[in-house]
């Protein structure tokens, strides 16, 4: 038991306060040092606070200062790593006394006490009841403080926005979805609406803006994560939008870490951190909405490609070659399996009022009633979905393919055709690639966005200012 926590050399899965397993991202094979810089086990040390699962490349916005003041740089780094180590241990294995934390991490009791005091000042941990375990004298339990720090995920989509606010354990404290015609509004007015939505969501959730330490924003498009800029979102028709600075300018949350990422990457993050297949290190998440995108996790890290644009699977030529896609080309996968293909294919829903989501409800009702035309459309969508998924399985060899967005909402009708196509077309033993449907529905990107914030803070607790 004790050995398991030393060095955090591999991914570990623990149970968060919401009762869900939550892999604690590390995976750098780094070890930890005590406060004096003395290495406490034999592994090689990497001085990196970069977040491993999410990728951690973001422009710094706002800031809480670092530990150490005038301390030499490497001591500051060591202390930051040890703060992260304690936080990861508490998240993975729950509250414990300082003595047991020292035992479990291999740090000295004095170091643990000092680190716990600092984490307490940053409102990341608090004291709980008495630990009467068998190590040392009974002592006060140290636990994750869930009362102050909040991580917010926002999803911007073609005609709606979603907000999710979690505490540090990943427990969802607030969720909200609102129809907003963002494509029609354009980026300037659209981001104004998004900022208003974020502000009122925080207010409704009962927390103060100052408690929101991270705001990760999901957009369905090509994102330069480092610059915080949306390069191109084909279905929104937005190009070159500085999402991070536009939102920060409107919100004035200068204490918060604000970042933008692609919706499928963040959906993959939600599945990896808190989904049914949490901790699966080679995972492909396919999100179906107005567009279709992929979030690819290889060996516990999101794959972004050379320019950060990896995962644009919606424009693979899979489907009927004559069908026009939102990108202007013909025969793209998303013109065969995207939400518009589903809604437009079912009689009576193509031009019905409401956003795509509410029209999807109508499709579901027709399918549940056994309407033959609707079922035929869904079967065809399932066939194309299965063919594209099989193609990706052959290229990428994931352990699991998770289908989210409207694919999950329609799983009863799409599932059989998807599984048949996978069985027939995956070259490796097809049963070795699991196909699952996401349980998060359209909330996955916003949820993953909140979890990306948690991983950022857990990777570097000094990002949170002392209070
Ligand atoms: Zn296309």
Strand content: 15-25%
The CATH superfamily name of the largest domain is ATPase, nucleotide binding domain
CATH fold descriptor of the largest domain: Nucleotidyltransferase, domain 5
CATH class membership of the largest domain:
Alpha Beta
> Would you tell me the structural class of the helices and strands?
alpha+beta
Provide the list of bound ligands, each named once.
zinc ion
Number of strands: 18
Q: Report the end-to-end length measured between terminal Cα atoms.
A: 34 Å
Query: Any idea what the shape is?
Result: globular
Family: Belongs to the ROK (NagC/XylR) family.
Pfam family, one: ROK
Biased composition (Basic and acidic residues): 23-35
Protein name: ROK family protein
